[in-house]
Amino acid sequence: MTPSAETAIRAATDDEIASVEEQLRLLFVRVRAVWKEAAAAVHPDLQPVGYKIISALVHRGRMHAGALADTLEIDKSVVSRQVKHLEALGLAVTVADPNDGRARFVEATPAAIESIGQKGSRMQQQLYASLRTWSGDDVDELARLLARLTSEVVAPATTDSASGD
């Protein structure tokens, strides 16, 4: 049985896909700007990649540096440099892994937890306020489509693209 003209699914055109690509580019530019603003609000010397690292530690708890690199898809050497910088800023500490004396955990300091919580909640409030103006169906559809795109688009992390900028 062949689908009728009404039920046939039309393939996206190159122009439509280019429009999505442009909107994603604009979203990523804005996200980078938000990370830069959030980093500066936590500490004037904090870089956006450092903000991403400390934010991950605040939200996920202490982690090994390698796990941070894997989770954030950034190079281990970047994590190592940023952890040292976070320690110098008083935002992170390294502690011995009780199960392996040679390994170290990185964890957020109480000051980082408080600061990230305040900054994160402001950004989260903005997102929630914006999405509350949408219909529930639209928000569900956005989440579904983003999940689908995320699962289908595989971009391997490289040292060039994974610098965290």
From TrEMBL:
Residues 17-151 form the HTH marR-type domain. It comes from the Bacteria. SMART domains: HTH_MARR (SM00347). InterPro entries: ArsR-like_HTH (IPR011991), HTH_MarR-typ (IPR000835), MarR/SlyA-like (IPR039422), WH-like_DNA-bd_sf (IPR036388), WH_DNA-bd_sf (IPR036390). PROSITE patterns: HTH_MARR_2. It holds the Pfam family MarR_2. GO terms for molecular function: DNA binding; DNA-binding transcription factor activity. Keywords: DNA-binding. GO terms for biological process: response to stress. This is DNA-binding MarR family transcriptional regulator. It comes from Agromyces ramosus.
